[in-house]
Amino acid sequence: MRAGDPAEPYPTVCTDDDAVDAARLSVERRLPALLVLDRDGRPYAIVGERTRTAGAISAARLMEHFLDQP
């Protein structure tokens, strides 16, 4: 083991994973960011807390818009 090696594997999500499940993982584990992997298991993106929060707010506003429609 080297000093740069993590003590335990960092949780990841895949580009095919459900966004709600990814958000739940982030909250339950209190992660500062989500590491998103592509289908081949390679790093695809890092989604930080600000991005997740903005996305959740946008999704909530979109749902409110559609629910308020006749």
3D architecture notes:
The protein is of the alpha+beta class and 70 residues long. It has a single domain (12-67), classed as Roll (CBS-domain), CATH 3.10.580.10. Helix content is 43%, strand content 20%. It is built from 2 helices and 3 strands, in the order E-H-E-E-H. The protein has helices at 19-29, 49-67, and strands at 12-14, 33-37, 43-48. The chain has a 3-stranded mixed sheet. It is globular. The relative contact order is 0.14. The mean pLDDT is 74.
Low confidence ranges = none
Q: Within the largest sheet, what's the order of strands?
A: 1-2-3
Instruction: Tell me the CATH architecture.
Output: Roll
**Portion in helices:** 40-55%
Helix tally? 2
InterPro entries: CBS_dom_sf
Organism: Streptomyces halobius
Protein name: CBS domain-containing protein
Topology, element by element:
Blueprint: E1 12-14, H1 19-29, E2 33-37, E3 43-48, H2 49-67
Characteristics:
70 residues, CBS_dom_sf, single chain, CBS domain-containing protein, three-stranded mixed sheet, globular, CBS-domain, alpha+beta, 20% strand
